[in-house]
Amino acid sequence: MKLKLARTTLKAKPKTIELKKLEEELASRSIFYFDKDNSHKELKELIEYFEEKGYSVYMREVKYGLDDNEFIYEVHIIA
Predict the structure, then answer these.
(1) Mean pLDDT calculated for residue range 65-76
(2) Cα separation of 16 and 42, whole Å?
(3) What is the pLDDT of residue 10?
(4) Direct distance between the N- and C-terminal alpha carbons of the chain, in angstroms, rounded to an integer
């Protein structure tokens, strides 16, 4: 599964990351930011994947502007 990481600027294209690469990065960090272009279903699958592996996962929307479409997803994955 590929997920889109949060954009670094408003006009940038979101970069993608494979689920396996995300799992490898858990050794160095536990908070990830994903773009609003990811579907809710994809993020639920991400949560289920890591919960099945014994991780605790917390997800929330973070607003960065006044418009309803100005948000990103913040995901905490804790061993």
Answers:
(1) 93
(2) 13
(3) 83
(4) 21
Token pair of 35 as six digits: 């773009």
Residues in Cβ contact with 11 at an 8 Å cutoff, skipping those fewer than 6 apart = none
Residue 79 has pLDDT above 90, yes or no: no
Contacts 24+ apart (CB under 8 A), 1-8: 1/42, 1/45, 1/46, 1/49, 3/34, 3/38, 3/42, 3/43, 3/46, 4/34, 4/35, 4/37, 4/38, 5/32, 5/33, 5/34, 5/35, 6/33, 6/34, 6/35, 6/72, 6/73, 7/35
User: Model confidence at 47, in pLDDT bands (50, 70, 90)?
Assistant: very high
| pLDDT at 26 exceeding the cut of 90 | yes
Map residue 34 onto helix, strand or coil: strand
Q: How far apart are CA 38 and CA 42, in angstroms?
A: 7
